Amino acid sequence: MVAPHSRLLNANALAFRTGKFLTACSRFRVSMSDHAVPPALEIRNLRKTFAKPAVDCLSLTIGRGEFYALLGPNGAGKTTTLRMVAGLLKPDAGEISICGINALAKPVDAKTVMAWVPDEPLIYDKLDPLEYLEFVAGLWAMDPVKAEHEARHLIEILGLAPHAATRCHGLSKGMRQKVALAGALIHDPQLIILDEPLTGLDAASARQVKAVLKDRVACGATVIMTTHILDVAERMAERIGVISNGKLIAQGTLEELSRKAGQDGGTLEEIFLTLVANEDAAAA
């Protein structure tokens, strides 16, 4: 199965390797803006209850080519929401649309255009990074030559080349995290969802991962990221959503959130803590 727009995205990957990345990405953005395309993710009245509501009538729309950070305190419902979007958890009610595909009615089709990287990814320990990427590419029925080319490219830009022949069980947590990210990206997904993607990464590895994600967004892909590292969200995200008690309590640019929190010129940490405290006080 091949995701929509995969030819354009594969062309962009090739253009990046031949020094024509920015031009190709510009053409991709124009092609996306010239047509009425559905948002990358649209959630309507999503609900999930365990002992108590974990996600409570959550509605959210995220556009194509957007870097979006989803923030919230522990237990706020961030991971539960993303697991439902990824098709790993069935919602009690609500609607999920991924690039115009009804993810609840057509889960397989939806998964072909997205990628999901959890905070504790599982990879095949007996394979080395190159073998693992070629295995994942095979699951997506990618052309073997193209798959190997893309796998070697991802290994290079993520700093995995010195470990390309090392079995994954011998890799550090940070290296395993990068292997998982490479596996998620190999089929050029349009929607990339990451739960705490910088966990376990040193400064150099974190920079590599952030650069790769920025490049994907520059080519029209959408990245949704949860993180407790608020300065990373502040620097990278175009829009930020704040969840508390399973509800979206605020959303917008940093400037918009600053105004809502009454924290003009404040840091994202100050804004976030104020918004959550206000919500808790209102719910008391």
Descriptive report:
43% of the residues lie in helices and 20% in strands. The protein has 284 residues and is α/β, with parallel strands linked by helices. It folds into two domains: 4-30 and 37-113 and 189-283, 3-Layer(aba) Sandwich (Rossmann fold), CATH 3.40.50; 126-188. A six-stranded mixed beta sheet has the order 6-7-8-3-9-10, with helices on both faces. The chain has a four-stranded antiparallel beta sheet with strand order 2-1-4-5. Helix 1 packs antiparallel against helix 2 (21-33), helix 5 packs parallel to helix 7 (173-185) and helix 10 packs across helix 11. The protein is globular, with a radius of gyration of 19 Å. The relative contact order is 0.16.
What fold name goes in the CATH topology slot of the largest domain?
Answer: Rossmann fold
Q: Class of the largest domain in CATH? A: Alpha Beta
The tally of helices reads 11
Average predicted confidence as pLDDT: 87
Terminal CA distance reads: 49 Å
Strand content: 15-25%
Low-confidence stretches: 1-24, 26-34
Extended strand count: 10
* Oligomeric description of these chains: single chain
Helix-strand category? alpha/beta
In CATH terms, the superfamily of the largest domain is P-loop containing nucleotide triphosphate hydrolases
Major sheet summary line:
6 strands, mixed
Return the string of H and E elements.
HHEEEHEEHEHHHEHEHEEHH
Estimated radius of gyration: 19 Å
Global shape: globular
- Domain count: 2
Helix content: 40-55%
Lateral arrangement of strands in the main beta sheet:
6-7-8-3-9-10
